[in-house]
């Protein structure tokens, strides 16, 4: 049977952006429902635990998903080799998450930390089984996967709360079930030769040539600890005020992220910035529309927040305004970062990202106790502005290069 025809970048970007926008609006709705059903302190604790789980998933992945996606797009490895790497990875991270769950349960008996291991397992499973689909340039299928995930989360959350389960517990349980259900659909949508399987399997290192991707992943994951640091230095109430609206800007960044994600295999194939731009320019209206949405949210936030989640979260309105302003340079940064990774500048991009994220977290540590939730928002804004300056410099150097497409061997030499 012939392989499905690859859809155009414009179609894939639009389809993924639309699905991602709806999916993230569902996330915002879920957090609104959770905030209305609990107090800021309880919400702050569960949001912190969720952040730890997502961070663990990013650390365990260590860039392997991004590297596998690029290898599939370039045809650098056989499908059988990729399948074996995926199976090895699943067995390893499953064991790690089980051990972490038991360890947290023993060391922090009676605490609310241990579910982060379940969240980490669910998150990394969903992401791992998406990587073959992304590498085959089927971003529109990834959009369907995302919708299945978030719709399932909403359904489970609603059923649990109606059954009498408290909102905080319902939140983390539903966020664990959604990615697993979506992962099943990803598995079914993947060609058989790329599916992870124990048949004819032998161990293969899934993290080979993932160092630069992994370093970036770790720091991006550490960035998710902002609310956890805020809870520690500013208190659970400040973390709750921040966590209640921190997801509201994700529909903005996810639209730009969808554009960047769909562009990645096309950029890798082009091999240089000028040719890559030829593929990307027809869909550039998408990140532009995300910037417009960010501006509208920034203006309406002080009025919108108290209406949606109540007067007890009135302080979150100004926090959302700053987060929306931070989302504007973030739109540009997502595209720049993914483009640089796929043009062989992943090491330089990783260094810039790492330094800036450290600065962001230090701002929270130093000013969290004084400014509370606003310290987290300001740290995010500063981080995004610094990133756009650093990445713009790298992109400018790429634009000056002649139109030469690197072979995979040459690309590997640059990354080593």
Structure description:
The protein is mainly α and 416 residues long. Helix content is 80%, strand content 0%. It has 18 helices and no strands. Mean pLDDT is 83; it is low at 405-416.
- The total beta strand count reads 0
Enumerate how many helices there are, as a single number.
18
Quick check: average pLDDT?
Answer: 83
Q: Which bin fits the share of residues in helices? A: over 70%
Radius of gyration: 21 Å
- What is the makeup of the main sheet? none
**What's the overall geometry?**
globular
CA-to-CA gap between the ends?
38 Å
Q: Based on helices, strands and strand pairing, what is the structural class?
A: mainly alpha
Which blocks of ≥5 consecutive residues have pLDDT under 50?
Answer: 405-416
Strand content range: under 5%
Return the string of H and E elements.
HHHHHHHHHHHHHHHHHH
Quick recap:
With 416 residues, this protein is mainly α. Helix content is 80%, strand content 0%.
Task: Jot down its keywords.
416 residues, 18 helices, mainly alpha, disordered C terminus
Fold topology:
Blueprint: H1 9-36, H2 40-61, H3 64-74, H4 79-107, H5 115-128, H6 131-135, H7 139-162, H8 167-189, H9 211-223, H10 226-234, H11 236-246, H12 250-270, H13 273-280, H14 285-309, H15 316-342, H16 346-371, H17 373-399, H18 408-415
Helix pairs in contact: 1-7, 1-8, 1-12, 2-5, 2-8, 2-9, 2-10, 2-11, 3-12, 4-5, 5-8, 7-8, 9-16, 10-11, 10-16, 11-15, 11-17, 12-13, 12-14, 12-15, 14-15, 15-17, 16-17
């Amino acid at each position: 049977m012939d392989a499905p025809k690859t859809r155009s970048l414009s179609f894939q970007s639009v389809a993924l952006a639309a699905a991602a926008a709806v999916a993230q609006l569902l996330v915002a709705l879920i957090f609104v429902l959770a905030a209305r059903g609990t107090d800021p302190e309880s919400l702050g604790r569960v949001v912190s635990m969720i952040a730890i789980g997502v961070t663990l998933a990013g650390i365990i992945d260590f860039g392997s998903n991004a590297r596998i996606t690029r290898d599939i797009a370039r045809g650098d490895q056989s499908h059988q080799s990729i399948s074996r790497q995926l199976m090895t990875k699943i067995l390893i991270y499953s064991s790690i998450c089980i051990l972490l769950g038991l360890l947290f349960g023993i060391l922090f008996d009676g605490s609310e930390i241990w579910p982060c291991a379940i969240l980490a397992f669910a998150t990394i499973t969903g992401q791992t089984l998406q990587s073959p689909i992304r590498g085959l340039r089927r971003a529109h299928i990834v959009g369907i996967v995302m919708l299945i995930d978030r719709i399932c989360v909403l359904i489970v959350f609603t059923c649990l709360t109606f059954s009498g389960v408290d909102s905080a517990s319902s939140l983390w349980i539903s966020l664990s079930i959604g990615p697993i259900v979506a992962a099943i659909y990803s598995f079914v949508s993947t060609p058989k030769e790329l599916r992870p399987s124990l048949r004819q399997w032998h161990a293969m290192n899934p993290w080979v040539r993932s160092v630069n991707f992994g370093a970036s992943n770790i720091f991006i994951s550490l960035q998710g600890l902002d609310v956890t640091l805020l809870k520690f230095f500013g208190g659970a109430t400040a973390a709750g005020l921040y966590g209640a609206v921190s997801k509201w800007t994700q529909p903005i960044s996810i639209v730009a992220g969808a554009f960047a994600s769909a562009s990645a295999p096309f950029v890798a194939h082009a091999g240089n910035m000028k040719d890559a731009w030829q593929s990307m320019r027809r869909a550039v209206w998408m990140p532009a529309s995300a910037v417009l949405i960010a501006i509208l949210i920034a203006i309406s936030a002080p009025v919108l927040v108290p209406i949606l989640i109540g007067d007890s979260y009135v302080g979150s309105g100004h926090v959302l305004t700053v987060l929306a302003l931070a989302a504007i340079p973030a739109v540009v940064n997502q595209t720049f970062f993914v483009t640089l990774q796929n043009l062989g500048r992943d090491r330089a991009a990783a260094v810039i990202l790492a330094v800036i994220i450290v600065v962001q977290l230090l701002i929270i540590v130093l000013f969290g106790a004084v400014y509370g939730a606003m310290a987290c928002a300001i740290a995010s804004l500063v981080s995004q502005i610094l990133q756009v300056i650093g990445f713009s410099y790298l992109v400018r150097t790429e634009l000056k290069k002649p139109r030469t497409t690197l072979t995979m061997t040459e690309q590997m030499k640059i990354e080593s």
